[in-house]
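Let's inspect one such protein example.
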Amino acid sequence: MNKGDLVSKVAESANLSKAQATAAVNTVFDAIADALKDGDKATLIGFGTFSVSKRDARSGRNPQTGKTIQIPAKNVVKFKPGKELTDSVN
């Protein structure tokens, strides 16, 4: 499922136009992204939790040349599925 499929599903399920469903989906995604940018977690009960984790700088190796390179530190988004989501796919 891609974003367009999700918008179509939301429009059909909530009896909205595609424009309204697109706005709703974008608002949810923006709210999650804003929470993560502020250093907060985004917890959707029954679905899961989005959080940010800091990945430290480390050494790596270029597979083409074999040369050692420095990989800079960065923040990464993590997702931990909730119990209901996990149970629904098993």
About this structure: The chain has a mean pLDDT of 95. The radius of gyration is 18 Å. Residues 10 and 21 are 6 Å apart (CA to CA).
